[in-house]
Each structure stands twice: as C-alpha cells, then as structure tokens.
Amino acid sequence: MEFWRRDSTQVDKDTVKSVSSEETRCLPFLLSHREGDRILLSSRIRRYSEAMTQPDSFIQRQQLDASMADTFLEHLCLLDIDQEPITARNTSIICTIGPASRSIPKLQEMVKAGMNIARLNFSHGSHEYHGESIKNIREAVETITSDPLYYRPVAIALDTKGPEIRTGLVKGKVEEEVELGKGSTVRVVTAESDKDKTDGKIVWVDYPSLAKVIEKGGKIYIDDGLIGLRVTEIGPDWVDTVVEAGGKLCSRKGVNIPGCDLVGLQAVSERDEADLRFGVSQGVDMVFASFIRSAKDVKDVRRVLGAHGREIKVISKVESRQGVQNFEEILAESDGVMVARGDLGIEIPAEKVFIAQKMMIGRCNSAGKPVICATQMLESMVAHPRPTRAEGSDVANAVLDGADCVMLSGETAKGLFPVEAVAMMHSICREAEAAIFHQQLFEELRRLTPLSSDPTEVTAIGAVESSFKSCAGAIIVLTTSGRSAHLLSRYRPRCPIIAVTRSPQVARQSQLLRGVFPVLFHPLPAPVWADDVDNRVNFGMDIGKARGFFKSGDMVIVVTGWIPGSGHTNIMRAVSAE
C-alpha cells in the first residue's frame, strides 16, 4: 500500500513500517505528515471529493469528508460551512397542535413545511376539542395532494396529563393572569372549594397531599420554574410561601416540588384512563405517557389501552429524578422515550439536564429504540419570526446526540409563527444531519450489536454498510410490520430509508424513526410474488426520484423478503436507478 503526503511527495517505506496493523486496517486517511515515528493521516475521503469533478458523478459532498473522518477531532476540523445540507431531512418533527395551528389550512402549511407527527396535549382541552383537532389533521393530510408520489402520512400522538400537578384557573377564567411579585406572601391551597380562587394572594393546586409531603424551607416551582416559592408555614390543607422568583401566573400551569416523594400520584389517573380510551376509539398512533417513573407505570398505560390499543406505541416521558434513576427498566418496557426537559430541569439541577439528555439518547440508540428531544427548542419563536442562536444550536446538538425526533410545543400550539417554526427546525436538522460523524457512529452501533442469527437484522447491517461504501442515494425497503425499516434506522445510514408499506398505521408510526420516509402503496398484491416485489420497488424508485433523493444512474440499495408476510426480509441488492 502506498502512502502519500498532502504535497504529493512519496513517504519512504521505513516510515510506513511504523504504522500499526490496527491503524492501517480500513483507514480512510492517507499520510499528512510525521512527527518522529508517529504518522498523522490525511483524508482518503479526498478521493470522494475529487470524484465531484467528474461530469457523471452522483456524489454530493454534504460534509462527506467530515462524516467519514478517522478521528473525532479530524471530523470537527473537516466540517465546512460552504457545503450543502443533507438532501432529505432524516429527523422527524413533532408539532403540538393548539389554537394557533388547528385549522385545516394552517395544518396543511405545517405538513408542507415538514411536520411528521401531530401532538395533542390532553393536559388542556376536552374530548370534543381534541376530536375536532384529530378530524382536522386527517382532513388536512388527505386533501393536501391527490398524487401518491407526494402523499405524506402524519402520525397522531396523544400526550397524557399524567400524574402532574397544576394550578387552577386564575379568577375562574382560562384567559386571566395575575402578577406574583418577588418577596410577596402567597398561600398555596388544595381544598376543592378554592379551585377557581387563584389570585395574587392565593394559588390553588390539584394535589391534596401537598401539606403532607413538603417541609418548611421546601421549594415549589410553577410554569417550568419561571415562578419560585419557598415554604414558610404548613397547615392542614395549605402552605404559606414567599415568592423568590416572581412573574405572571396564567391558568392551569404545571407545578413541581423537587426532592419530595409525591405519594398518592398514580401513573394513570381516572382522567388519563378516560383520555386513553378516547384515544383508542379515535385510532391515535402513539401515546406520550407523562411522568413515567418506573416500568410499572408503562405497564399500567398498556393495561388501560387493552387489546384494542395493543398496536399503539407507548413513548415514556422521563421528566423526574426517579425516572432518570429507573431509566433502564423504563426503556426496556417502552416503545420509545421522550427526554422532557421542562420538568426535568426543575426536578434535577438545570446544569445537569444536558447530561441526562445525552445519557438517555445514547442508551436509546444502543437499544435501537426511538428517542424524542423536547421542550423549549425554539421557544423564542412563540413571539418572534427567528430563533436565538442558542436555540438553533440546541436543536442541532439534539440531532448530533442521536435524537430520532425533535419537538415543538408552544411554538406551534400558541405561537405567532407556527409554520415558520417548523420550517426553521427543518433547516437546522438538515444542516446538523450532514455534520454527524457517521463513520464512527455506524462502527460503534455495529460493535454493540450481539451476534445474531436473525436474517432481517443481518440483512439490515449489510444494507447500511453497503449504502456507505457506495454513497447510495437511498435504501428502499419493503415492510409489512415496519420492523425491517426499524432495524435499518437503528444503524443510522446517511441516506434516506424509503419504507414501502400497505399498512397506513405502519406508515404513520414509522415517522418515529430516524431516516425513515414511509410511503403507502395502495394497489392490491399481484398474483405472482416476484411481480408484486417489483411493483413496490419501482414505486419506491419513483418516490425517490420525485422527491429528489436520487436521480437516474445513482446507486440504490434494495431490501426485500423472499416470501410474503412479515419476518422474512433477507435479500439485499445494489441497483442503479433507472
């Protein structure tokens, strides 16, 4: 093997001998310079970049040099602000639907801007209200286009109220607010008779055991910590407090009591049970289960969903210290996890939230389960058309950490610029995805995978590696249950995964997975299995070309099964798009 300096002068053979076999095995770098006997390698990926000068080349840069670097530091050094972002956004965008976004025209704009999953927050609103929102979402999706090549399935997620504590209505009205001044005295009450009496002197909360679990000097935080109270006196059903951090208190805001064992708070309340049964009747695709603290809480949610809701995905929201401590058992029982940073940033020190975020995302990636990063990602866009620089970096770092989905809350539920918020998140995700250290990520994910005799998983690993080696424009997979697409997503290819399925629910639920572009194939199965496979693969090819994932002549990896049904995926082909 010949090694060359950047200045094209050949390195002597004695120098080459100092390179260990481990250093030379599958290295993507050539020699740059030497320090004594130590050899620093420069990017072999330069050969990919040089291919860009060829007239028939299909390779786009998209931070390819950095993506295929050999070390993390070299990866960072090779990032280039002048290179184009990834062609197809791989990270899904979840949008909370509220007064600012529930109309059909606005929903259609959000779908066009990039919304993949619509979240309904059942902490607010009636069943009638949410039923109308679900109807609007489905109508918006079905009427946005009649062309199957551009149809975009949108999943619907039910976010439960959970065992959370909230304040009552300010002066008995939803739209009212009151100022709590710093240093003022406020009595926090729990009697049902005071439910609508919240004002500047009294704040009602829906947790009857408050006086039993809190101590003098304890802290009560309201509205994601924007308002802070310190307990001075405790009564039978009230506590007196001093306002340490003041602000405007609106109706029905969340309350956190860090450091307390919140006895009497069930994982699934009677209200949650009614909401979950309503979700089953409405055919929601997934449940975001709030304040999950143990595996038992997840099982309780599944019990309520019952046989009719067994196909609904359960995503556990981890937003307490206890949830972080029990993360492994929660992950094992859940279909996925949401890193809910709002309440988590109050339950644990704010400066430790990023540690919890990275830990949870890393463990979800290792387990091959989808993970969502949420809360205040583009918060300033509630009132402004552009985010702060810090918010842009926050979204990008969630993508770089490995999140499958990123979520917008108030930005789309009540903000002035819901469509612009989706479009901005779409743009940030594309840039961040191009900057992922794919070479290292794939190698580590592959190493973490135990030896497997499962043909579907083995085929998925081979398909993703082949997509890297060939700089494929896409991976097309035919899937019945969604498992093949899930396994491909687990190994994080750079290119999009076009998942062709006949199941509308599988298509919608696949929006949880990084890099998966679900497409619905409506025609009935052809009499001959091979013809049916060809029909679906050709449909996937048409989708890829129509959406600009690749063009004629580009390499595409095709993953299929050898007989009908799920669980039989074992064929991988590398083909040239026609």
TrEMBL record:
Top-level taxon: Eukaryota
Enzyme class: transferase
Reaction equations catalysed: pyruvate + ATP = phosphoenolpyruvate + ADP + H(+)
Transmembrane segments: none
Pathway: Carbohydrate degradation; glycolysis; pyruvate from D-glyceraldehyde 3-phosphate: step 5/5
Cofactor: K(+); Mg(2+)
Keyword Magnesium assigned: yes
Domain Pyruvate kinase C-terminal residues, every copy: 459-573
Protein name as it appears in the record: Pyruvate kinase
Organism: Scophthalmus maximus
Lineage: Eukaryota, Metazoa, Chordata, Craniata, Vertebrata
